[in-house]
Design goal:
Layout (H helix, E strand, L loop, with lengths): L9 E3 L6 E3 L3 E2 L15 H13 L4 E3 L8 H10 L7 E6 L1 E3 L5 E3 L3 H15 L4 E7 L12 H12 L3 E7 L3 H8 L4 E5 L10 H10 L2 E2 L14 H10 L3 H12 L12 H9 L7 H19 L3
Parallel strand pairs: 3-4, 4-5, 5-8, 8-9, 9-10, 10-11
Antiparallel strand pairs: 1-2, 6-7
Helix pairs in contact: 1-2, 1-9, 3-4, 7-8
Bound molecules: NADP nicotinamide-adenine-dinucleotide phosphate (NAP).
């Protein structure tokens, strides 16, 4: 695949040497069903990663608990030795139960083991960026994150981690975290239909902190809305492309990591960076979340 889009331009993370194209790739879909075990077609998973890199993507989001271990091992097989400008962002703070459940793994030993698992499975000597993943499955829960974050900061000082981010956190938890260590990115659940972090995103933009929405396309329940369909039809684009373009225009500190196991969806998603949304389309799309909120309030 040739570099056919500008991938949304770049965002240089203040105080670091990292500059990322705004359109990246989330690797969770590369593991098997329910993010467990190997994918049905490993070669297809490898092809998706190689195509992303060939298209210019330099930001891949992953975790060693996808698979578990499988996704990182596929990344290594597909891309190692890694391109110089590639930034692999991983997460610590969770593990998988034998019943495929998602459990916390925030103890000192679990975090240390998690760093070493990632280093080994990705075959690197230092992890570029590690997000500390706390809270519930979909939403943050208030409470101190000082203990696990202090462990990550120690691992950073040892040289095993380049930069630290947070996932599934509140503004208050960010405030606490910034007293402990530098935070370069936040990864929370956000998309055109789920806008609980609107105010948080604006705060982060002012601070120069990257915001990476997880489930940008709705995740396990992909976005569906007549507004998305209508705007997509009027622009000769797909609804998923419109959802991604909406995120790109929402704030310059938003970087995208849409997940897919298919090269055709990958191409479609990357091409969304070139899609311009006219003001009336943005107004229509802004109505989606307002509708979701109103429906929630009236109990539907
Ligand atoms: N921090 C956290 O707690 C957390 C939680 C969840 C995810 N994440 C990260 O966020 C990344 C993105 O999340 P995600 O992959 O779960 O959800 P997503 O990007 O919102 O959506 C992925 C789903 O959409 C489908 N899809 C992708 N492109 C499409 C297209 N152009 N047309 C139609 N369907 C399309 C995929 O299926 P196909 O495979 O068939 O394309 C998959 O089912 C993950 O890869 C992961 O790295 C982080």
């Amino acid at each position: 695949m040739t570099k056919q889009t500008n991938l949304g331009g770049t965002f240089a993370i203040p105080g670091t040497s990292i500059s990322l194209y705004r359109m990246g790739y989330g690797a969770m879909q590369l593991a098997g069903p329910e993010v467990w075990g190997p994918p049905r077609d490993v070669d297809a998973a490898i092809a998706v990663l190689r195509e992303a890199i060939a298209a210019g993507v330099n930001h891949i989001d992953t975790s060693d608990y996808y698979g578990p271990h499988v996704t990182n091992q596929i990344i290594k097989t597909a891309l190692h030795p890694y391109p110089k400008d590639l930034v692999i962002v991983t997460k610590l703070g969770a593990r998988r139960g034998e019943d495929k459940s998602w459990l916390h793994a925030l103890s000192r030993q679990e975090l240390i083991d998690g760093v070493h698992d990632n280093l080994r499975n990705l075959s690197v000597e230092r992890l570029d960026v590690v997000n500390l993943r706390v809270g519930g499955i979909m939403e943050p829960t208030e409470g101190s994150i000082a203990e696990p974050l202090t462990v990550l900061d120690e691992l950073k000082r040892e040289g095993l981690i380049g930069y630290i981010g947070l996932s599934n956190v509140t503004p208050r938890q960010l405030q606490e975290a910034q007293k402990i260590t530098e935070i370069v990115c936040i990864q929370n659940f956000y998309n055109v239909a789920r806008r609980g972090d609107d105010a948080f995103i604006d705060i982060l933009a002012k601070k120069g902190i990257v915001y990476v929405p997880f489930f940008p396309l709705g995740g396990f329940t992909p976005l569906q809305s007549s507004e998305l369909d209508g705007v997509a039809a009027s622009l000769k684009a797909t609804p998923m492309q419109v959802a991604l373009a909406w995120l790109l225009q929402r704030s310059p500190n938003i970087l995208l990591i849409p997940g897919t196991s298919s090269t055709s969806h990958l191409r479609e998603n990357l091409a969304a960076a070139a899609l311009e949304l006219p003001p009336h389309a943005i107004a229509q799309l802004n109505a989606i979340a307002a509708g979701v909120k109103a429906a929630g309030q009236s109990g539907h």
